[in-house]
Amino acid sequence: MKDTLGSVLTGVLLGFALSRIGFSSWDEVHRMFTFADLRLLFTFMFAVAVLAVAWRVLYRISSEKPSWPSRNIHKGTIAGGALFGVGWALSGACPGVALVQLGEGQLGAVWTLGGILVGNSVYALVHEKYLRWPAASCADE
User: CA 119, CA 23: separation in Å to the nearest integer?
Assistant: First the structure.
């Protein structure tokens, strides 16, 4: 229960931050992707840099050194990344930001979340019927 509460609190704080920064605004995201306003891009890059430093510090001070085995790239990674990018460009939101938009009362987020659900369902059918790639390559084993 304590872990769940911590996760919910972290999600709410992240959602609040994303909202205040402007990541939930289609116009702001559009300006970032067209390089008309680099504020969001620099914010994103700064967050990645801070996270990289934080992981390095945690690795150094940790008594048990975490190890991440290398994994092969799944066949669907390129296609999935492209579809994710197209969806983000069209809707102005990734799945997490769609939830932030919904929390802000942006009703367009309902369409984005619906598209995410439909897209996942269609992918499951296509995968099962046509692709037949081993799903285990996407999971940690």
Answer: 22
- How much is the pTM? 0.72
CA distances from 83 to 22, 57, 97, 137 (A): 23, 35, 17, 19
Are 15 and 94 within 8 A, CB to CB? no
Q: Are 97 and 24 in contact (CB under 8 A)?
A: yes
What is the per-residue DSSP string for 68-95? ----PPPTTHHHHHHHHHHHHHHHS--H
Cβ(89)–Cβ(107) under 8 Å? no
**Res 19: pLDDT:** 93
Say if CB 99 and CB 105 are below 8 A apart: no
